[in-house]
Amino acid sequence: MPSERLDILRPILSRARSLQGAVAWGVVLGLLALTGLMALHPYTAGPRQPIPFSHYRHAGIRQISCFFCHDGADRSPTAGMPPIAKCLLCHNRIAPHFAPLSKLHASWESGKPVEWVRVYRLADFVYFNHEAHLSKGIDCGTCHGDVKRMNRIVLNQRLTMAFCVDCHKQPAYKASVDCYRCHR
Amino acid sequence: MPDDLPHDAEEDEPFTVSRRDWLHRMAGVSAGIGLAAAARHRKLVPFLSPSADVVPGVSQWYATSCRECPAGCGMIVRNREGRAVKCEGNPDHPINRGRLCARGQAALQGLYDPDRLRGPLHRLERPRMKARARRVELQELEPATWEAALAGLGEVLAPLRATGRVAVIFDLQTGSLAALIRRWLELFGSDRYLVYEPLSYDGIREANRLLFRQPIIPVPSLEKADFILSFGADFLETWISPVQFTRQFAENRSARSVYVGPRVSLTAANAHERILVRPGDERFVALAMLHELQGRARQRAAHGAAIPDLGDYSPDRIGPQIGVAAETLLRLARAFGDAASPVSFAGDPFASGPRAVEAVLAANWLNLSVGAPPRWAEGLHALSEAASQAEAAAFTEAVAAGGVDALLVIGADPAFSLPATFQEAARAVKHVVSLSAFADNTSETAAWLLPTNTPLESWGDYEPQAGVLNTMQPVMGPLYDTRSAGDVLLALARAAGLDPQREFGAVTYREYLASRWRDGADEPHEVALQRGGRWATPAPPSPPPQPRGTRFGRPAGDDAPRLHVYPSLSLFDGRGANKRWLQELPDPITKVAWSSWIEVHPHDAARLGVGPGDTVALDSHYVAPVVLSQGLAPGTVAVPLGHGHLRYGRYDHGLGANPYHLRLPEPRDRPQAVQVANNSGPVALPCADGSPYQHGRDIARVVRASEVAGLPRPELRLPLPEGYTREGDMYPPHGHADHRWAMAVDLNRCTGCGACVVACYAENNVGVVGPEQFAKHRMMAWIRIDRYYDWSDPSAPVLFLPLMCQQCDAAPCEPVCPVFAAAHSEEGLNMQVYNRCIGTRYCANNCPYKVRRFNWFDWEWPEPLNWQANPDVTVRSRGVMEKCTFCIQRIREAERRAKRENRPLRDGEVQPACVQTCPAEALVFGDLMDPTTRIARIVAEDKRAYQLLDHLNTKPAVFYLKRIVDEGQIRDRPQFWTSKIGACP
User: Fold this and answer.
1) Nearest CB neighbour to A72, from listed B45, B57, B889
2) Among candidates B43, B47, B831 on the partner chain, residue whose Cβ is nearest the Cβ of A83
3) pLDDT band at A73 (very low <50, low <70, confident <90, very high)
4) ipTM
C-alpha cells in the first residue's frame, strides 16, 4: 500500500526537510564563495594548448599589451600569432628553465613552429578585418572577452552572424550591414 | 607451409580481410581523413622568426621580369603569407606600363604546375629506342640528391675540361646568365652553344643582314605613325612585344591600320582593312605597292639608287596572280605614300626561307621608299641574339657528328620544336643534362634531370630591348628542391674541379649577379631591384648603312593548300600548354579551347571533302579537327602552335597535335604545301562560341568615323535614382551609399586579347573546368569576350565585346532568387551571397547577359595550384551560383587604405583585375556618383556610350563605347545564320 509506506517514511522525510534546507544553504553559500574566487582567479576552461600559455599571467599580471604579441591587429585584417622568436625574446632570460617552456625551445631548435589550437574560427566565406574594428575604437574584449583573466583562452562568443550584425545595426557605430561588407 | 605465412588463408576464404573488418577499417580511415582535414583548420601556426616585410594578412609586392615570352615585360607579383598569388604589370616599366597579357597573368601557373620536377632525377641507363620503350624509360628515372647529381656529373665533366667536348643549349637569355654560360663553356674549351627560341623570326634577321649587313630584330614603334601596315605580323597577340604594341595601337587608333596576311588573326580583326592572301604572297602585295611608289622613291636621293628593279611587279600583273584587285593595291600604295608617317613591317616568327625573308625585305623597302622616319626600327630587341632555324639545324648536325660528350639543355625544350633529327642527335651524346623546371620532351633523352627554379623563384636579369634592363628577384621561396640554373652551373664547375671564386668571381649566382649589377651603376643595386630594373631611354639601333639591292621571287601558280602556322595567343610557342588558365582561354577568333584545330576555308573544305569537326591529317603528321573559317585566304590551311607535348604535365597530356613537325626546310621557290588526308569522322570541339552573328540585336555597336562628331546625345538609363521612370520601372527608385561603381568599355580600344579573362581567373579563384565540361559550355569565366563577325562582307569589322556582370540597377537576377542570395548592395553592385545560395539557378535563367556561372561540380585544385588561390576571395563549392563582383575585395582594400590614410578614395584607385591588366586600357572603372571621376565624365560626355540590351531597362552600370569603323563597313541589315561556319556546330 502506498499510503502505509508514506507513513513509515514520514519521520525520515521531516528530518530530511531540515537537512535539505541546510544543504541548500550550503550550496548557495558555496556558489557565492566560488563566484568570489572566480573574480580573483583566472579561467582555465579553454582548449588545452601544446604549451600551457597563460594569458592571465602575460596580459593580466604582467600587463603586456595585446599588440605586443598580436602585432597585426592594428595594421592587418588578421591579428597574427607571435613568432617563436618573439616568445624567446623574453623567455631566453625570463624563466628560461621553466619546464613547460622546453617545447618552446625545442620548437626553435628544430625549426618547427608550435601549432596552437585555434579557438576563434570564422567561416571561410566571411572576411573580418581587425584593423578596421580597432581603428573604430572597438575593444578586443568586445569579441574576445576578458582575456586578462583567462589562463587558457576560452571562446567568449561564438562568431555567429547575429553577433556581428547586432553591433553593425547599432546607430552609434555607423556600420553597414551590406552583405558585401563581410561576404565576398 | 612456412610458419610465417598466414595459414588457412587459401583454404578458408579467398580474402584475408572479412567484409565486416573491411568496413570497420575503412570507417576508421575515412574518419581519420575527415579529422585530419578539420584539424588543419584548427591550428594557428606562427612564424619561427619574424620576417621584416611579411605581415600576415597584408600583401607584399615584388618586382621582377615576366619571362613567358621574349618580350620581357616588367612584372610585380603579389605575395601573401609567403605565397605568390597574383601577377600584375609593373606600372613604371617602359615596355608594358603596368599591363600584362594573358600569358603574363598565367605565369603563376607555371610556378604552381602540379607536374613540376621536385628534385633531381637520374636515368640509370641510357634509354634504348625500341618498341614500347617509353614505359621502360619512365621507370628508369630514379630520384637522386643534389649531392649525388653534382658528384656524378663532376666525374663526367672533370675530364672534359678544356677539351671542347661540352655544348649548351639555352633559351633566350641576355646579360648575366648568358655571360655565365659563355664563361662556363670557355672553361671547358668550348664555344658550342645555341640560344634557342622556337619562334626565331628568321625572316627579319636575314632580311636585315641582306639589306643593312646587320642581322638584327628591330622593334617598330606604332606611337606616332599615321598608317600602320602589317604583312602577316600579329603584333597584338604574339609578335615580338605584344603588350607594348597593343598599348601603342590602342592609343593611336585614329591611325589607319591595314593587315595583309593569310588569316584573320586578332591583329587582322582589329585592323581597319584586311587583305587576305595565301601564305607567302604577302611580299607580292608589298612589291606591287613598291612598284607604284617607285617613281616617288627614285626622287629620294638617299636610297633611290639601290631600289631593286620591280618591272615585273606592277599591280596589274601581280594582282590577278595573288587574288587581290589591282585597284586595291594601287589604293593601298597611294595611301601609304601619302601618309605623313607610315610604318610597315613583316616577319613571320615561324617560317623561314625566302618567303619570310622577302616579305621583310619588301616591307623595309616600302619604309625606305617613302623616306619616313624610321619607326620600323626604334629599338633593338633581344631576339636578335636567338639562333635561326638554320643555325639550330647546323648545331644539331654538329652534335650528331660526334665530338660532344656532354650536352646541357637549360630552360629550352628543343625536342618539342626541332625536327626528330635533334632527338636522334641527342641520343648520340653520352651525357645529356636537362636543366628545366619541368619534365619536357627534351628530358626524354637526358641522363640527368636537374630541376631549376621557375623565373618567379629566381634571381636574374633580362634585357629585352637595348637600354631596358630588367632585374629579377624571387617573388616567393622555392617550392621544391630546385636551384637556379646559374647556381647549378657554378656548382657543376666546382664539381668538375674548378674554383668558382677564381673563374667567375662568385660562389653563388646571386653574388655573381650583384657584382655585375654593381659595375658601372650610380645607385645601389637594391634600388634597381626594388624598381624592377634600370631603364634608360631605349637606344635606337645605329642608323642603317646604305641598303643593298635585293632580288625577289615570283608568285607560284600551285594549287595545293598552303600551310600557315601561327603562335597561339594563349599557348604561345607551346610553353603555355602546362597552364590550365591558358588552356581554358578560348582562341579569340575560333573560340576553341583545350584542343588543336585546322582552319580550312569552306571552298577548300568542299574541294577536299571535309566538314566541320572532321578529324583530318596534314602531311600525315598533324591530326586535328577541322574548323571552317572564311577568315582565311582560299587555298590556305592554318594551324596554331602550342599543343602536342609528349611530356609537359597533365594539362597538355593527349591534347592536340604538334605542328612543329610540319616545319620542314622550305623549298626555295614556293611556300610549303600540305596534303590533307585521312578523314576519320567528326568530333565535337570544346568551343565557347554561341553564335558568330548578332541576330539583329545590335549588341556590339559600331559608328562610322565621319559620324562620331555628329552623334546625338545617347539616351542612357543611368543606374542612379535619376534613371527611374514611372512608366519603365516596377520598383521604386533607390539611392546608394557613398559610391555607385560603374565601368566603361571602349570597344574602339579593346582588341579582344583575353588578358582580362585570365586576370579574372587569377584574382577571383575562378574554377577551371577542363575540356569535357568546357564542351558542355560549363566554363566558369566571370568575364568573357564575345566575338561577332559577318564573313559575307569581307570589309565588315570583326567585333569583340568583353562581357562581365553588368551590375544592373534594376537587375533581373535579384527578384527571382527565392533565398535572397542575389541582392543589391548599397554601392549598387549585384551581390551574390554564396552562403545563402541554394543553387536554384533562377538568376542565371533570368539574366539577359548570360554572365552568371553555376558550379556544377567542385572544381579541382591539385596541390600546389591551390596555393595560388586569392585568400581574400571565397573558393566556391558545388551547387553555388557565382559571377563578377567588380572585384569587391579590391574595392574594400582600397577603401581601407583610404580610411587608414584618412582621406577620400581617389579616382582610379580602385581597379578590378580586368581593368588593371588591360593592355589596351579599354576599361575604365570608377564611382558614378562623383561627377569628377573619369567614368562619370565618360558617361556624361562621350556620345559613343551605350548600354547593352538597354531596351530591357535593366539599367546596367557597364557602359560600352561604340567601335569606330570605316566608311561603308556597317551592314544595314544584320546577317542571320546562313551556313555552318565557325567551330561550334
Assistant:
1) B57
2) B47
3) very high
4) 0.84
| Structure confidence at residue B541 as a pLDDT band (50, 70, 90) | low
The answer to whether the CB atoms of B900 and A127 lie below 8 A apart is no
Task: Say which CATH architecture domain B60-111 belongs to.
Answer: Single Sheet (2.20)
Domain B562-677 fold is Barwin-like endoglucanases (2.40.40)
Contact A76 B57 (CB under 8 A): yes
What pLDDT was estimated at residue B509? 95
Main-chain dihedrals φ then ψ at residue B361, nearest 5 degrees:
-55, -50
For B57-97, write each residue's pLDDT tens digit. 999 999 999 999 999 999 999 999 889 999 999 999 999 99
Which contacts of B774-781 are long-range, i.e. CB under 8 A and separated by 24 or more positions? B774/B584, B774/B593, B774/B594, B774/B686, B774/B688, B775/B684, B775/B685, B775/B686, B775/B687, B777/B688, B778/B854, B778/B856, B779/B584, B779/B593, B779/B688, B779/B853, B780/B853, B780/B855, B780/B859, B780/B882, B781/B584, B781/B757, B781/B853
B834 to A125: CB separation less than 8 angstroms, yes or no: yes
Q: How high is the mean pLDDT of chain B? A: 87
Cα separation of the two ends of chain B:
67
Least CB–CB distance from A184: residue in B823, B826, B888: B888
Residues of B in contact with A118 (CB under 8 A): 41-44
What is the bridge-based pairing of β-strands B431-436 and B406-410?
Answer: parallel
Instruction: Look up the CATH number of domain B121-198+386-519.
Output: 3.40.50.740
pLDDT of A21 reads 83
pTM across the whole model: 0.90
- Please report, for chain B, the start and end positions of each structural domain, with discontinuous segments joined by +: 60-111, 121-198+386-519, 202-381, 562-677, 702-965
pLDDT beyond 70 at A156: yes
B569 Cβ neighbours under 8 A, 6+ residues apart:
B102, B237, B238, B266, B585, B587, B588, B753, B754
Where in the sequence is the domain holding A9, given as residue range(s)? 1-41
Contact A83 B829 (CB under 8 A): no
Q: Do A80 and B48 touch (CB under 8 A)?
A: no
Q: Which of B54, B887, B890, B892 to mutate to probe the A interface, most A CBs <10 Å?
A: B892
